[in-house]
Inverse folding.
C-alpha cells in the first residue's frame, strides 16, 4: 500500500508505480484509448468511434469504476463546447458517451446492498492536497499547462479543446466530495498534459525557438556529457564492501575486530 500511496499522484500508469497497483495500468489504458477514440470522432464525425468508445468505457467501468468520471465528464463537455452552436443536433452523441455510466450499476447495487462496502468506500476517499501542493506533486508540466491556459488565448481546434477540457476537468474532479479513490482520475493524466504542453509550445513558437537554441546548448553542455553519467552512477549505486573486511550482516559496514 505504501508504494501505491507514494506513486499514485505521479504515476504514468505504465512504468512508474505499476507494482503498487496494476489497476492503475488498466485505468490508464482505458483512459488513453477512450480519448483517442473521441479525438478520432472529432476529426471525422463518424459515429462508429463513439460506439467503440461507449463499449470500451462500459467494460472498463465494470472492471474499474473510477476513470468513467473523467472520461464521460470531459467527453460530454468537449462535445458541448465544440458543437455549442448546434449542440442539440449532437444529443445522440452525448447520449452515446453518457450511456457508459451503466457500467456503474453493478457497483452501485452491491454498495447499496452491503453496508461494509459503503464503509470501505467512505474510508477510501482520497484527501486531495491543496492546489499548491497538488501542482507541486504533479510537476512542472502541469503547472506550465495551467499557466499557459490562463495567460494565452484558448486553442480552438476540436482536438485541442479535448485536451484542454480533459486537463481542466481532471483537476476539478479531484475536489468532488465523497468520491472514493479519486486519485484514479489521474490515470493517463500525465500523457494528456504532455500532449497539451506540446501543442501549447507549438502554438507559441517555443519549439522553433528551442531548435534554434539547441546547437548553443549542445556546445555548452558538451564538457559535462561524460561526467554526468558517471556522477549519476555513483549516486544511484549502493556502496560495495569487501566481505572479508566487513560484517556482511551489519548494514552500516562496521569493521570486524
Amino acid at each position: 500500500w505504501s508504494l501505491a500511496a507514494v506513486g499514485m499522484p505521479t504515476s504514468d500508469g505504465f512504468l512508474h508505480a505499476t507494482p503498487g497497483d496494476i489497476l492503475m495500468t488498466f485505468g490508464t489504458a482505458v483512459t488513453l484509448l477512450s480519448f483517442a477514440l473521441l479525438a478520432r470522432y472529432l476529426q471525422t464525425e463518424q459515429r462508429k468511434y463513439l460506439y467503440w468508445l461507449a463499449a470500451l468505457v462500459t467494460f472498463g467501468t465494470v472492471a474499474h469504476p473510477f476513470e468513467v468520471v473523467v472520461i464521460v465528464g470531459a467527453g460530454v463537455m468537449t462535445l458541448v463546447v465544440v458543437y455549442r452552436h448546434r449542440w442539440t443536433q449532437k444529443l445522440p452523441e452525448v447520449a452515446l458517451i453518457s450511456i457508459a455510466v451503466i457500467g456503474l450499476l453493478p457497483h452501485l447495487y452491491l454498495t447499496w446492498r452491503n453496508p461494509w462496502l459503503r464503509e470501505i468506500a467512505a474510508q477510501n476517499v482520497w484527501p486531495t492536497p491543496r492546489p499548491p501542493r497538488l501542482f507541486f506533486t504533479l510537476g512542472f508540466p502541469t503547472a506550465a499547462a495551467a499557466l499557459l491556459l490562463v495567460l494565452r488565448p484558448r486553442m480552438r481546434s476540436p482536438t485541442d479543446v479535448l485536451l484542454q477540457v480533459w486537463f481542466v476537468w481532471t483537476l476539478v474532479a479531484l475536489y468532488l466530495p465523497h468520491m472514493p479513490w479519486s486519485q484514479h482520475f489521474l490515470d493517463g493524466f500525465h500523457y494528456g498534459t504532455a500532449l497539451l504542453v506540446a501543442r501549447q509550445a507549438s502554438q507559441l513558437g517555443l519549439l522553433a525557438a528551442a531548435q534554434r537554441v539547441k546547437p548553443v546548448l549542445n556546445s555548452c553542455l558538451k564538457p559535462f556529457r561524460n561526467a554526468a553519467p558517471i556522477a549519476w552512477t555513483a549516486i544511484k549505486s549502493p556502496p560495495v564492501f569487501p566481505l572479508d573486511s566487513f560484517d556482511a550482516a551489519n548494514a552500516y559496514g562496521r569493521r570486524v575486530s
Summary: The two ends are 41 Å apart (CA to CA). Confidence is low (pLDDT under 50) at residues 1-6, 234-257. The chain is about 65% helix and 0% strand.
